Amino acid sequence: xxxxxxxxxxxxxxxxxxxxxxxxxxxxxxxxxxxxxxxxxxxxxxxxxxxxxxxxxxxxxxxxxxxxxxxxxxxxxxxxxxxxxxxxxxxxxxxxxxxxxxxxxxxxxxxxxxxxxxxxxxxxxxxxxxxxxxxxxxxxxxxxxxxxxxxxxxxxxxxxxxxxxxxxxxxxxxxxxxxxxxxxxxxxxxxxxxxxxxxxxxxxxxxxxxxxxxxxxxxxxxxxxxxxxxxxxxxxxxxxxxxxxxxxxxxxxxxxxxxxxxxxxxxxxxxxxxxxxxxxxxxxxxxxxxxxxxxxxxxxxxx
Length: 303
Prior knowledge:
Radius of gyration: 19 Å
Structural class: alpha/beta
Oligomer: single chain
């Protein structure tokens, strides 16, 4: 199948690099100096799992110059850039195209489906610690690389979705076609949202949360509030979310931080609304107290 990856940062760039290495037909959508470097000399990958290497050539272009019709579109932009992708997807997607958003923000697929009637838009999430180190270079910290995706309505299940999982596996990426994507996406959110909130509140990296102390205790409290929300939303987790996520946390490179933290520190647009403020609103909507989230949100300026 022909793949398009919108966004070539730590998430999209890594997907594109791994799939290109495996001989899959994949094109990255990027812009600016990052795009220029990739077009000139490929994409440099600095990883703990596979070492440092260069993927060259790699197909990369911008939205204006992409003229193909992909079978599968991975959407890997930040939540605040999502609206920019909708007109582009409408232009390039054929009727049978499948759109798989793998953003940090919970519920993205459903919102995109409303804007893209006629296409199949799944929900999805990704487990990875990656970022642009410099233009043309992706830094991946840790070994985890898993994409979980699925349809909200079982009647929308299509054979191509199984083929995506196979292509991801061929590429060294764990692809999981979920039979309950609402739960699985919320489970991922139950890691990245508390991690972002805790990191921002204490201004710390993963290493500080891996140690006994206030940051780790707060991380646990935030996870328990998401756990309570999951029950209220009728998608209770099938695992002990605290134990599961602490195990994931403890595998991370101690220097790892969330992209939301890095954006806030740099004074850039960030996903703070979807990752933190929205949880406070969800608590109000479902009648679930979220005092720890409210503490972090009010510190960050939420009113």
